[in-house]
N-acetylglucosaminyl deacetylase, LmbE family
Amino acid sequence: MLPETEINRVLVVTAHPDDVDFGSAGSVALFVDKGVEVTYLLVTDGDAGGNERTLDNSGMAELRRTEQLAAAKAVGVTDVRFLGYPDGQVTVSLDLRRDIARVIRQVRPDLVITHHPDRNYQHVAPSHPDHRAVGGAALDAVYPDARNPYAFPELVKDEGLEAWTVREVWLNGGSTPNHWVDITEAMDRKLAALQSHGSQISHVEGFLDFVKSRFAAWAEQAGLDEGHYAEGFQVVTTA
Ligand SMILES: [Zn+2]
């Protein structure tokens, strides 16, 4: 694995508002504590999410962007970018690969955190089609698109964005995690971030207890003591 001291910039690529907060906001908070620059890239605005049938789609998109900005702030992240793809319709297209590769070349991250592109057969929720598509496109953008100057040559020609090699990727939501981050000291901030997504969680009874038990279970799987919380990832070396 990449030594922690060599991680100076992190890019988190997700499908919807709230994905980063469920999957990795605790790890993000710990990176921010160490002075690492973290950028969020959201492929959709989450306009097909929520429980409120009276809002039209555009109202939902705006609300969810606002919620994500607040959630990012709760863990110290201020650079949040949206690609505005339609929620529920994401595919691994060349356009999406180029759009992610563009941001990789702009941000020049050492580490990318994104969704696992394979279906998880133990739980359905992590494998939303948008999640799998974004994970696949992000991995394609890491290798080969962002590092190959001949991939999407307009990025160099028109935008002056030189090739960039991401050295490691952490995948969320897979069934075979091999790296756990002890997020106990950042758990309050992760919960605050999650609570920023009122349109998604305000109707869920016992939400905080559900989240705590989920991440306590990860900690147990990671072999941590009782009272600890952990986030799990599959690490992919991409250097
Ligand atoms: Zn999602």
Notes: The CA atoms of residues 56 and 202 lie 19 Å apart. The pocket of zinc ion is lined by residues 15-16, 19, 128, 131 (CB under 6 Å).
